[in-house]
Amino acid sequence: QVQLVESGGGLVQPGGSLRLSCAASGLTLDYYGIGWFRQAPGKEREGVSRISSSGDSTIYADSVKDRFTISRDNAKNMVYLQMNSLKPEDTAVYYCAAGVGVLTLESYEYNYWGQGTQVTVSS
């Protein structure tokens, strides 16, 4: 059974940092690209960042570029999202998702999804 479990969310002040983790089980992560998505209350889910299966290719949404960094450790079956200079508009539930050969941040490319972790940026 494939499982993706996010962790690391919480409450942080504007300008602060958080590191989200995505733990994968039931699949060999080496074969999967991983995306991070987020959904704020009353808004549609949006793609945040994607990393290729090998880790040599990454993409970011314009809204998080230069603030967020995605990385992975295939040996540990883990993917991370380092979030710096957080803003109130980053408040959302963050999800990781896995798909084979994913190239974009389009949800339909991803087969497996985690349950999400809440990130709240507020003073």
Q: Overview of this structure, please?
A:
This protein has 123 residues and is an all-beta fold. Helices cover 0% and strands 50% of the residues. The chain contains no helices and eleven strands. The protein has strands at residues 3-7, 10-12, 18-25, 32-39, 46-51, 58-60, 68-73, 78-83, 92-100, 112-113, 117-121. Strands 2, 4, 5, 6, 9, 10 and 11 form a seven-stranded mixed β-sheet that branches. A four-stranded antiparallel β-sheet has the order 1-3-8-7, with no helix packed on it. Strand 5 (46-51) and strand 6 (58-60) form a beta hairpin. The protein is globular, with a radius of gyration of 13 Å. The N and C termini lie far apart (40 Å). The model has no long low-confidence stretch (mean pLDDT 96).
Number of strand elements: 11
Largest sheet: 7 strands, mixed
Structural class by sheet pairing and helices = mainly beta
- In helices, the fraction of residues equals under 10%
Mean pLDDT: 96
Radius of gyration: 13 Å
- Summed up, the helix count is 0
Shape: globular
Strand fraction equals over 45%
List low-confidence stretches: none
**Termini gap:** 40 Å
Topology as H/E string?
A: EEEEEEEEEEE
From the structure above, extract its key features:
single chain; 123 residues; 11 strands; mainly beta; globular; 50% strand
Chain-wise SSE layout:
Layout: E1 3-7, E2 10-12, E3 18-25, E4 32-39, E5 46-51, E6 58-60, E7 68-73, E8 78-83, E9 92-100, E10 112-113, E11 117-121
Parallel strand pairs: 2-11
Antiparallel strand pairs: 1-3, 3-8, 4-5, 4-9, 5-6, 7-8, 9-10, 9-11
